[in-house]
Amino acid sequence: MMSTASRPKDENQVNKREKVIYDKEEYLLRKQLPPRYPSRPNDVYINSKTNFKAQLARCFKVLENENCVQIHGLGAAVSIAINLALQVQLKSSFPVDLAVNTSTVDLIDDLEAQTDTAELHSQDRQNSAIHIKVFKSSTMTPVNK
């Protein structure tokens, strides 16, 4: 009986996600912006540089006029988006519920040549994303203590 580890890899079985190794003196890594979907008035995009209190105030302002607010976070902003949604739920004067979806976003990085002889390359990577729907609840649920 032959082990699968001892079989040579076929050309079709080569890992397609091989990491690109580049010389930092020859190439400059430029991260492209992630794909951005059309923004609606009730969408709040979270990043790690925006003031948290301003994002919280924006969520409450949207909830005054709309029935729900969509909070989106990518990468390092996932934990900030979760914290923001929980703060909205905690500090809201009316009952709200949360619906959470996670996804993976494909990103592309460009490797710009620093010399005239080097070629232009790109590198694919993936990042985690979260989409939280905070919506007004129609019924209050009692808390059991």
Could you explain the architecture of this structure?
The chain is of the alpha+beta class. The protein has a single domain, classed as Translation Initiation Factor IF3, CATH 3.30.110.20. It has two helices and five strands. It has a five-stranded mixed beta sheet with strand order 1-4-5-3-2. Helix 1 links the parallel strand 2 and strand 3.
- Name given to the CATH architecture: 2-Layer Sandwich
Q: Give me the side-by-side strand order of the main sheet.
A: 1-4-5-3-2
Helix content: 10-25%
Number of strands: 5
The 3D shape can be described as elongated
Q: CATH H level: which superfamily?
A: Alba-like domain
Largest sheet: 5 strands, mixed
Order of helices and strands: EEHEHEE
The end-to-end distance, rounded to whole angstroms, is 61 Å
What is the CATH C level class, in words? Alpha Beta
Q: Structural class, from helix and strand content?
A: alpha+beta
Unreliable sequence segments: 1-15
What is the CATH T-level topology? Translation Initiation Factor IF3
Q: What would you report as the Rg, rounded to the nearest angstrom?
A: 22 Å
**Total number of helices:** 2
Strand content: 25-35%
Mean pLDDT, as a whole number? 79
Count up the domains. 1
Question: Any chance you could write out the topology, listing elements then pairs?
Answer:
Blueprint: E1 27-31, E2 43-46, H1 52-65, E3 68-74, H2 78-91, E4 96-113, E5 121-136
Helix pairs in contact: 1-2
